[in-house]
Amino acid sequence: MxxxxxxxxxxxxxxxxxxPEEPExxxxxxxxxxxxxxxxxxxxxxxxxxxxxxxxxxxxxxxxGAAVLELGVIEGYNMGTLAISYEAAMxxxxxxxxxxxxxxxxxxxxxxxxxxxxTHTHNVKKYALRMGIFALLSEIPFDLAFYQSMWYPGHxxxxxxxxxxxxxLSVVDYYEKRQNRWIxxxxxxxxxxxxxxxxxxxxxxxxxxxxxxxxxxxCLWLQTVVGCVLVAWETTAPLAFIPIRMYNGERGRLxxxxxxxxxxxxxxxxxxxxxRAIR
Length: 279
What we know:
By secondary structure, the protein is mainly alpha-helical.
């Protein structure tokens, strides 16, 4: 009797072991989007130090014309204390016109630098205090250079104008943070008028110009248009916005903060000495 053949069964594949589920990753909190930095353009090659050097150079050129050529050479000729010919006097008169025209570019640049300094300073009070100290230190050199006197109350140096500009911007900034920008601009009017009351260089206009540049700081093309229109009464002054628009927003590596302040009274004393030597 034949034995039954056992049925050969196909081996069953082992059941796949269930893979443990991966623990769910906690959802990351969404990071707030940072505001996009404006792209630097190819022509924006000037940092803060370079812009200050340009403004300083233009100012000294302007003051050479005002303090040396006008008060020294031209007035000396008119008073008969300087023995030069009429032709020579006319040459220096034309030279003075050129220097003064070039020098008109300095004030708009300084005003722009004040708005930048105010925006980036860590301590507005120290910024204003520093400006005030150098305003006081520069007053006698300013009066000597331009009025040949130790004390002339009818005209104060430009540091006082820049100081009032900083104080006006402080008021504007205070109300801007409380969503009352227009109240801040109106409140700044008091500091603007102090420019005329104190007879500072450029008077109320100078302080107003600083506030205007600050008000349009977030729209550069509009800041340029408004700035050029405001200073158009000085023929060459709108050209100041060429180097201003070449500014790249960087401070620069050199730390020359106090040097830029100190040069102002020092160069005025030097120009006064040159003027006295000529006359």
